[in-house]
Amino acid sequence: MTIKRSKLSVEITKKVEIDYLICLPDGYLEETREWGLIVFLHGMDMRGDNVTQLSNYGLLEAVNEGELSLPFVIAVPQCPFESYWNMERDAVTALIDELSANHNVDRKRIYLIGYSLGGYGVWDLAIHNPEMFAAIVPLSSGGQVSKAEKLKDISIWAFHGAKDDIVPLEQMTEMVSAIEQHQGNVRLTIYPDLGHDIMQETLSNQELYLWLLEQTR
Length: 217
Hints:
The chain is α/β, with parallel strands linked by helices. It has one domain (2-213): Alpha/Beta hydrolase fold, catalytic domain (Rossmann fold), CATH 3.40.50. It is 28% helix and 29% strand. The protein has helices spanning 58-65, 89-102, 117-128, 169-181, 199-203, 206-213; strands at residues 2-11, 15-24, 35-41, 72-77, 105-115, 135-139, 155-161, 186-191.
């Protein structure tokens, strides 16, 4: 899989720009089929203006290890300094639209994965664009419980560490319970011995990607 750097600049109601890395799966250039798209949202410490620092972080670190079979187009945008993913919502959705229009992406198989700050971003983006995503995977985060009904038609697999002292486990369990009350398709994995940093444990699990492959709009 080859990782490339790019920048998106578009006019919506205002001009939005976002730097991102894109990783194309093995066989992408040889095969004409459409691929699922995973957008990965990073945590707070990786905000900035040097997107290359994400090339061996999170999902791309898992890719670089070479032990996973990831038949997806993968996009990793960077959130600017002093910003949050809910403030970059238009940029991320514009990025998804651009990738869907210009790459062999199956619009029925668009997925969001996010850790910590990125996990909050995953909840937020899915709540505001529930028709866009087939599945979301929030890690170490919580969402807007009052808007949980908007997520009832999206497949969700959430992850959290029981010993998380940065984002209390209750934030995740309350969100999951709220979705369950609306008969949503949600599952939660709790690591009993882990704290906030659960990225490697979660993203190196091939079962997660096999599950994603089963999810479609």
